[in-house]
Design a protein that fits this description.
This protein has 155 residues and is mainly alpha-helical. The protein has one domain: Arc Repressor Mutant, subunit A. It is built from 6 helices and 3 strands, in the order H-H-E-H-H-E-E-H-H.
């Protein structure tokens, strides 16, 4: 049986990738905390709202799967968002055992504004990159993201 040899440069690249992903996670947490506090939302509440808005209506089970959180944690998030009048919950017409979550009509403009501000924040971050390299960097981030998805799915 032949073993695949890993070159020293590949090992160094793997270490660099590990360090960069740790730093990226740290910066994402800092960015999310900064942004969320501006709108009096937790990072998890913000992610939850974006998922609900993208899907029009979503179940607790779907949210738990997409956010990789327990149904109990999702229920806690939904209770908080409902208290803030950002979402409403209704019994699923197709499955009376399930509950669908919706964005409230009053919250649509607020959420659109939050998403607009989130995009603006990322525009500011892009401004720190050289203009002539942005497209290449973004293309490479997409490649990295695709590789991570393949790893996650075991492909």
């Amino acid at each position: 049986m032949s073993e695949k040899k890993i070159s020293v440069s590949q090992i160094e690249q793997a270490r660099m990738m590990a360090n960069l992903t740790i730093q990226l996670e740290k910066f994402c947490q800092i960015k999310d905390q900064f942004f969320s506090s501006k709108f009096k939302l937790t990072p998890a509440e913000f992610r939850c709202l974006r998922i609900i808005k993208e899907n029009d209506a979503v179940s607790t089970k779907q949210l738990a799967k997409q956010m990789k959180l327990t149904p109990g944690r999702i229920t806690h998030l939904l209770n908080s968002l409902e208290f803030k009048n950002l979402i409403s919950r209704q019994i699923d017409k197709n499955d009376r055992r399930g509950i669908q979550t919706f964005i409230t009509p009053d919250a649509v403009n607020f959420i659109d504004n939050v998403i607009k501000e989130y995009t603006k924040l990322h525009e500011e971050i892009l401004d720190y990159l050289p203009k002539d390299k942005r497209e290449t960097i973004l293309d490479n981030v997409v490649l990295f993201f695709n590789a991570m998805q393949k790893w996650e799915n075991g492909v």
